């Protein structure tokens, strides 16, 4: 992870005040690193408080939020700031892709922006709403926010999956690719799995470990976005 941080900031130094695509790609790498760190702290937290577990068992979720208050606070804090960076990156990249005539990819990055914006609220509630409500034993308020959080988590995951597919499908086919096919293909597969899992959650299927699949698709997707974003930055600098 340390070497990844070095690569990100070296890319930023080379980018300077360059074009929107190179600046956006550099910020995307930084935002993706932050989301990976956030995901690590989600994993380190009790499962009942760190995912859209279905069906909801309120007592378990409240106990988990109280027990995992420290790691949830770190996850929420890193997450909200990382989300803001990544959302800014997505807008810059979408703008540049739109101007260059890559409408489908631009639409994908717009969807990614919406997903990241949704997760800003998800991460904020994770770190700053659930633990104090659990500590105060405010079951009614906790349940309301938890059900909203579950819906937003699934919605953000579905939007992330759709955005990844639209953003990188062209790279898989080799049409004006900025990311190699293997990396783009891995992103598309992860996005599809996460998106389909989120839709299954909305449909009420309880036979799948929806929380684990959705969370893994975001964490793994963010990890793959780091090299993808760095490749985009290098390609933009060479153009």
How would you characterize the overall build of this protein?
About 3% of the residues have low confidence. With 239 residues, the protein is an all-alpha fold. Helix 2 packs antiparallel against helix 4. The chain is built from nine helices and no strands. It has one domain.
SSE blueprint and pairings:
Elements: H1 2-15, H2 20-43, H3 58-67, H4 69-99, H5 103-128, H6 130-135, H7 139-173, H8 181-202, H9 210-238
Helix pairs in contact: 1-2, 1-9, 2-4, 2-9, 4-5, 5-7, 7-8, 7-9, 8-9
Query: Distance between the terminal alpha carbons, to the nearest Å?
Result: 28 Å
Low-confidence stretches: 11-16
Oligomerization category of the chains in this entry: single chain
The tally of beta strands, per DSSP, is: 0
Q: What kind of sheet is the major sheet?
A: none
Radius of gyration (CA) equals 18 Å
Q: What general outline do the C-alpha atoms trace?
A: elongated
Pairing-aware structural class of the strands and helices? Answer: mainly alpha
Strand content: under 5%
Order of helices and strands: HHHHHHHHH
Mean pLDDT: 90
Helix content: over 70%
Number of domains: 1
**Number of discrete helical segments:** 9
């Amino acid at each position: 992870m340390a070497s990844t941080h070095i690569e990100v900031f070296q890319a930023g130094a080379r980018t300077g005040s360059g074009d929107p695509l190179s600046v956006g790609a550099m910020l995307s790498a930084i935002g993706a690193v932050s989301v990976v760190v956030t995901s690590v702290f989600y994993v380190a937290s009790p499962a009942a408080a760190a995912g859209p577990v279905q069906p909801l068992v309120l007592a378990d979720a409240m106990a988990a939020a109280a027990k995992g208050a420290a790691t949830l606070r770190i996850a929420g804090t890193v997450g909200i700031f990382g989300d803001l960076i990544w959302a800014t990156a997505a807008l810059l990249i979408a703008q540049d892709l739109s101007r260059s005539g890559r409408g489908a990819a631009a639409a994908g990055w717009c969807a990614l922006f919406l997903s990241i914006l949704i997760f800003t609220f998800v991460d904020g509630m994770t770190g700053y709403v659930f633990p104090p409500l659990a500590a105060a034993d405010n079951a009614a308020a906790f349940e309301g926010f938890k059900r909203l959080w579950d819906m937003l988590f699934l919605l953000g995951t579905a939007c992330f999956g759709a955005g990844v597919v639209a953003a990188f499908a062209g790279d898989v086919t080799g049409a004006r690719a900025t990311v190699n096919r293997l990396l783009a293909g891995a992103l598309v597969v992860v996005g599809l799995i996460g998106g389909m899992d989120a839709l299954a959650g909305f449909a009420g299927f309880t036979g799948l470990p929806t929380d684990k699949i959705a969370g893994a698709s975001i964490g793994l997707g963010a990890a793959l976005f780091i090299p993808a974003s760095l490749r985009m930055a290098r390609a933009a600098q060479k153009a």
